[in-house]
Design a protein that fits this description.
alpha+beta; 168 residues; 4-stranded antiparallel sheet
């Protein structure tokens, strides 16, 4: 029995497996760099929103309190809170900031190739809110404009705020 051909076939398989392993490692490194870069871009927004939760203890109208045309039913207001999770598929690799009240909002950094078209930061409200256009209709090319839009949106839904802890 001639094992040379089987050895060649096995060596071929091993070389392909090593190529695949190298590709996966490279892909992981690239993904990690992209996530870190996007996280850095989101950092000022993260700090900005933390002021609403930590310093102001902001209470906002609940998302469920809005109808498609007007506020129609009483739903208990809720503390404003922000969390971080994987971005929606349309923004690629990375994490987004989210809040569910006063509307379901995602704050993301699009992939590098999409930033001319979508902006540096994308903010989308996916539920009905009478002022969702503040977020949905703008292209945010810098942190200042994104923070101002978020501030306007949140201000439109204030239920209660603790101004005693405000650091000027």
């Amino acid at each position: 029995m001639n094992f040379d051909k089987e050895d060649d076939a096995f060596e071929f398989f091993l070389s392909k497996a090593k190529e695949k392993e190298k590709y996966i490692e490279t892909d992981k490194e690239i993904s990690k760099k992209i996530k870190e870069e996007k996280s850095l871009i989101l950092h000022p927004i993260r700090l900005f929103l933390r002021r609403f939760t930590d310093d102001l203890k902001l209470v906002v109208e609940a998302t469920e309190s809005y109808d498609t045309k007007r506020k129609i039913k009483h739903v208990e207001p809720v503390f404003f809170s922000v969390y971080e999770d994987d971005s929606s598929a349309s923004y690629g690799i990375g994490d987004s900031l989210y809040f569910d009240n006063p509307g379901s909002v995602e704050i993301a950094v699009p992939d590098q190739r999409d930033r001319d078209d979508k902006g540096l930061i994308v903010i989308r409200c996916s539920t009905y809110h009478p002022n969702a256009d503040i977020l949905n209709s703008a292209k945010f090319m810098d942190h200042k404009s994104a923070c101002m839009a978020l501030s306007r949106f949140l201000a439109s839904s204030i239920h209660n705020v603790d101004l005693s802890q405000v650091k000027k």
